[in-house]
Design a protein that fits this description.
The protein has 90 residues and is mostly helical. It has 2 helices and no strands. Among the domains are: 34 residues; 25 residues.
């Protein structure tokens, strides 16, 4: 009789926690679908932060492009051009 009671209590205990885990998953899914709860505001904060980071990168890229166009030329116009080679015979 004792082993039957222990087995019954164990089954009820496991079923209770399985039910709680399932209910938590269902509630979390419903929150995500309907946009309720803290998880949605956290996702919005992350999206906003990613957008700001992307805008900052774009702005930095534009500034680099703008400043690279303003740099003076290092090489003269005639440097590095192809010159015909003519062999001199003696």
């Amino acid at each position: 009789m004792t082993s039957l009671f222990g087995c019954l209590v164990s089954i009820i205990f496991i079923a209770f926690f399985a039910l709680m885990a399932f209910a938590g998953a269902v509630i979390d899914t419903l929150r995500r679908i309907f946009g309720l709860g803290d998880s949605n505001s956290y996702n919005q904060q992350q999206r906003h932060q990613q957008q700001r980071h992307q805008q900052q990168r774009q702005q930095n890229y534009r500034q680099e492009q703008h400043t690279s166009r303003q740099k003076p030329k290092v090489f003269a116009d005639d440097e590095g051009e192809y010159v015909d080679f003519e062999e001199v015979k003696r």
